[in-house]
Structures are given as structure tokens and as C-alpha cells.
Amino acid sequence: MRNNIEKIFSAFIKFFAFIAISLLILILIFILKESIGLFNKVSFWNFVFGNEWQPLAFNPQVSIKPIIIATLYVSIIGVMIAVPIGVGFSVFISILVPEKISKVLKAFMNMLAAIPSVVYGFIGLFIIVKFFEVHFSFSTGESVFGAGILLAIMILPYIVSICNDTVCKIFKIYKIHSQSLGVSKWYMMNNLILPACKESIIASTILATGRAMGETMAVMMVIGNCPIMPTIFGRGETIPSLIALEMGSARIGSLHYHALFASGFILMLLLLIINAVFYGINRKINI
After folding, report:
1. Which SUPFAM superfamilies does this UniProt record tie to the protein (predicted)?
2. Long-range own/partner contacts, residues 241-249 (CB < 8 A, 24 or more apart)
3. CA distance 118 to 121
4. Whole-angstrom distance, CA of residue 188 vs CA of residue 170
5. Of 66, 118, 137, 202, which residue is 20 to 30 A from 213 by alpha carbon distance?
């Protein structure tokens, strides 16, 4: 009886996994199909490496190099800020604080993950943007760096969640041996736990990067939404923000419409390339 239940459960899991993969493939095919309408008129090279985004001009120009760069800038800033803090916070709540306090901090971190993006956007608009305007004398506080800071706060719970589980498991393995040998917690963290957590750190970085590159609403509210060549402390526009802002006004079948789908296709290619790079790094670390 138990074997039959396990077989049925296994069949359900395989079925839903097949459905999920099929849906992903269908989405990719649909995006690629809608993108071809652009690439029949504009070369892939000019679309990716050109500087002008003027789809409604008399002579339309659709190139997204500044938008790609802004997307990468924001994501890299967010990940660079969030990963060290997330890993350190995971070690802190797993090893250095009492269990009761650890549970409270974990609950707080889980609550951060449940806050809607638009709420983060309002927080960024009224705190981060205003801070840059007042203390750095920016003409406007909307900037790539401000969007990166906001993204770092948003992706922090994902990093902490993945790293915390691994740190707890590894700490239980080494705790008794380290105490019996008189090894300090700091030595154990630096030389035993963190090296053993490298895979989970890479996994959390991949997840955080994907989350950062796909974020729309919060980033859109603080980055300034200008399709110009971005600077760290200047305005910019990310690919998700571009699609969210302009898809509603794009006429179906127009060059503008196909260019937005092509932008989404480029975003998916970027994510695949970044995941492949992290996978290669992970393999080299494990060799």
C-alpha cells in the first residue's frame, strides 16, 4: 500500500514538473516569436549595441545598450551590497545569538520578503531619493545607485534564507568537535563554516541576481526611467521598467511592440549567461 502511494506521489511530481517545464518552453517560444518581427527589420547587433531608444520617432531607433547597462549596474550594485550582509547576518543569527533572538530575527527577515514591491518603491522614493537630494545636492535623487540600494534590501531575505539553513547544518556538525578542541567561534566561522558554505553562497547569489534583474515596480519608482547611457549616480532605465512603462502604449504588431518583446528576450539571455557563469565558477570551486 505504501509503495503504491509513493508511486502515485512520484507520478504527480513528475507530471507537474513536466507542466512547469512545458510552460517555460512555451513562454520562451512566444517571446522569441514576437521578437522575430523586430529582428527582421533591425539587426541583432544594432539592437543590442546601439544607443538610441526612440521607437515613436519619424525614423524609429530601437537600441537598448544603455538599458542593458543600467540593468546590469543596478543588479550588480544590489548583489554586491546584499551578499556580504546576507552571509554575515546568516552566520550571526545561526551562531552568535541565543535561539530565541534568532527566531525573532528570522521572522523579521521573512516578513521583509513578504512586503510588496510597490511598498519598497514608496520607501525608496521618500527615503533614499530624498536622502540623495538633501545630503548630496543632487538635482534629483533618482539614480542607479539608489535603485541598487533598494534592490539590496529587497533581495536580502532570499540570501539569508538559503545561507542560514546551510550555516545551521554545518554548525551542528562542527560545534561539538570545535568545543572539545577548544577552537574559538571566530576561528570556526572563518576556517570551517564559511568555506563549507561556498555552494549555498553561490546559489543564493544566483537567486538574488535573477530577482534583482527581474524587479520592476520598486526600481521603476527610484531610477528615473531615462533610456540614456547611465552613470552610477545618474538616471537610467532597466529592461523590466522599460517593458512595464511602454507595453501598454505599444500598438500590437508595431516595431515598438516587437522591440519590447525583444528586450524581454535579451533579458532572458542575460540571465542564462549569468547563470552559466555562476555554474562554471561553482564547478571550478568544487574541483
Report:
1. MetI-like
2. 241/216, 242/53, 242/64, 242/67, 243/216, 244/216, 244/217, 244/220, 245/220, 246/55
3. 5
4. 10
5. 137
pLDDT digits (tens, 9 = 90+) for 15-63: 888 998 999 889 889 998 888 888 888 888 888 888 888 888 788 888 8
Which pLDDT band, with edges at 50, 70 and 90, does 252 fall under? confident
Helices (H), the chain: 2-39, 44-49, 65-91, 99-114, 117-123, 129-135, 144-181, 185-188, 194-196, 198-214, 217-222, 239-246, 255-286
From 233, 49, 65, 215, select the one nearest 140 (Cα to Cα). Answer: 233
Closest CA to 285 of 201, 200, 199: 199
In contact, 149 and 132? CB cutoff 8 Å: no
State the burial class of residue 25 (Cβ atoms within 10 Å of its Cβ: 0-12, 13-18, 19+): exposed
Residue 53 and residue 67 in contact, taking contact as beta carbons nearer than 8 Å: yes
The alpha carbon of 151 is separated from its chain's Cα centroid by a whole number of angstroms, namely 8
**C-alpha cell of residue 31:** 517571446
Would you give the DSSP letter of residue 251? P
Task: Give the rounded distance of the alpha carbon of 53 from its chain centre.
Answer: 24
- Residue 224: beta bridge partners? 236
The pLDDT score that the predictor gives to residue 22 is: 92
